[in-house]
Amino acid sequence: MDGLVVDRWKLAGLREILRRQLFLIRLGNNRAVRYRQNPRTCHEQAARRAACLAGGKSVQSWPMGLLLLLLLFVVPAGPGLWFWCRSLAGGRWRHSAGWFAGTAVLLVLGTGVTYLAGSLAGGNLDPEEACHSDGQTYDRAYRRANFDEYTQWFPLHDRCHAGYDLVPGWVNPALVVLPVLAAACLAYAVRLAVIRRRTKQGTPARSASSTADRGRPPAGGAEGSAVPGAGLSGGRVGESQVHQHRRQADGGSGGDQV
Q1: Alpha helices in the chain (DSSP H)
Q2: What's this model's pTM, rounded to 2 decimal places?
Q3: Domain ranges in the chain?
Q4: DSSP string covering 35-46, please?
Q5: What would the pLDDT profile of 215-248 be if each residue is shown by its tens digit?
Q6: What are the protein's UniProt keywords (predicted)?
Q7: Residues 172 and 164 sit within 8 Å (Cβ to Cβ)
């Protein structure tokens, strides 16, 4: 039970870190707007920030960290999506185990992106500000009473109050459908690979059996196969030779009697 509580706290901390990254990006945009409106104030803030840096205080680059996090999903998905579309356009996807395996990988990446989008719902460091920006009231009593709701791994929820959720409604259904489709594509890819392997193993056996059938003597009797023209008429040729021997024997016996 204690381990589950710790995991929930870790999840809440991770979500707050990611929200902080988006908040700092938005803060940078707001500073740009303020600079256009009042350049003098912005110069004073920049001077104070430089003084803090000179005093040894470090500033973390959260936007760069968020960019690297997104690249972890975009870099593998880009080439994979290109090969996926190429096979789909060529019509080779129906019997391609690699295409279905690649589809499963893309669906898994889509699941990760969807989970990230749901975890960053609101896009702000403070959930209260996110609720106010959406025109909703922030109910602290409700959030205290339902602490487990927005710290659990699944389903994702971040409610301002009982009737409004910062997490979009499509996120949780997508987190169910995408993994199921990925598992189905992976299972079908394994099935196609097994069928192809069995087909390759059965082709040499069939060719060997056909070669053996070609080397067998044709049916028609052992006597007929010993003479030229053996085949189905081998028995008839043997019978004609027997009759010729009998006639010769009869003719020879008749000559002896004379």
Answers
A1: 2-37, 39-54, 62-90, 97-119, 127-133, 140-145, 171-215, 222-225, 234-257
A2: 0.54
A3: 1-45+124-167, 63-121+168-200
A4: HHH-HHHHHHHH
A5: 555 554 444 444 444 444 445 555 666 566 666 6
A6: Membrane, Transmembrane, Transmembrane helix
A7: no
